Amino acid sequence: MENYTSDSSDCDTNGNKVFDFAYLLLDSKQLEENLDELGKDHNKREDIESIILHHNQLTTFPKNLAKFTNVQVLDISNNGLTVLPDFFEYWHLTTLVAKNNRFSNESLPKSFTVSESLRELNLSGNIFEQFPEQLFEFINLKYLYLGGNKIKTIPKNIKKLNCLQILSMGGNQLVEVPSTLGQLKQLHALVLCDNLIESLPSNIANLHNLKSLQLHKNKLRTLPPEIIALKNLTELSLRDNPLVVRFVSNIRHNTASLKELSARVIKLHQIRVEKGDIPVSLLNYLDSAHHCVNPYCKGVFFNSRVEHVKFVDFCGKYRLPLLQYLCSTRCVEDDEDLRPPRAYLMKKVLLG
């Protein structure tokens, strides 16, 4: 399994199609002078597809960069940059790597020129406090790296980036994960490590192509039981969470209301009711029933449920606590672990 991290690799160089100024400690003026010299040949300017500027001392972008009209890859990492121009106004970039600068939400233009060519964007290691809403304009984005910032929430609009294969947001200040993230059906790797996340939405099970899920260094106590349906998941990192790895029964139960008890009786005994037989509120309430997950129980629950931590045996070595919802404490099975089919077993579960 490929080891996904919150950083993408440095841009590859390819013969004469690259201007590589990396590690030269150039300031903005020196870079402009170099570009003027190299750009005198019009044909050569047209051939350039990649400009590599990482590990310099840039604070602004030289205006003569725009002369290189066919640039597809730009790496401006590890500089002192505070403003990110709208490069898409004059370039059809496929890759923009801008990690380890000083970009904030105020550093970006209010909107970018619509670009259908951008596939990879790396803004890791900056000082963003909010997820940049402008990124939703890049509808064909496949690889998005936002690790090592100060982002507190993932917007519900993340569903717009439905071509994403890698979403890396480790090392932020995330507390929760929106359910809309479950709509990113193309995701192969999801990096949410080193945050403050306490729970995951159950529809994370919709990420059928997910291979790597990195959740270490959070505040997770349980996982949604639906996670065992991720058949392609081969790497799950859970270390440094409050997850317990020995068997513990944790049961919480709220007393059922009279409304709930009435609805349960109707459902359990399959009593036929029509409009006018019972109050409208109870009739509508019947539609919100949930079936007990105990395979030997035919009961249902509504608002009152038993929250039970069930431990799943993975790889014959690790036991993952999954949160189950039951209709009654009598449905708790203490003697038998929930064991997923072999096809669901993960190859690599990291707890230590």
Assign the structural class, choosing from mainly alpha, mainly beta, alpha/beta, alpha+beta, or little secondary structure: mainly beta
The average pLDDT score comes to 83
The strand order across the widest sheet is 1-2-3-4-5-6-7-8-9-10-16
Q: What best-fitting shape do the alpha-carbon axes yield?
A: elongated
**Strand residues, percent:** 15-25%
Radius of gyration: 26 Å
Number of alpha- plus pi-helical segments? 4
Could you give the count of β-strands?
16
The low-pLDDT segments are: 1-15, 244-251, 334-346
Spatial gap, N to C terminus? 19 Å
SSE series: EHHEEEEEEEEEEHHEEEEE
> Main sheet?
11 strands, parallel
- Percent helix, as a range, is under 10%
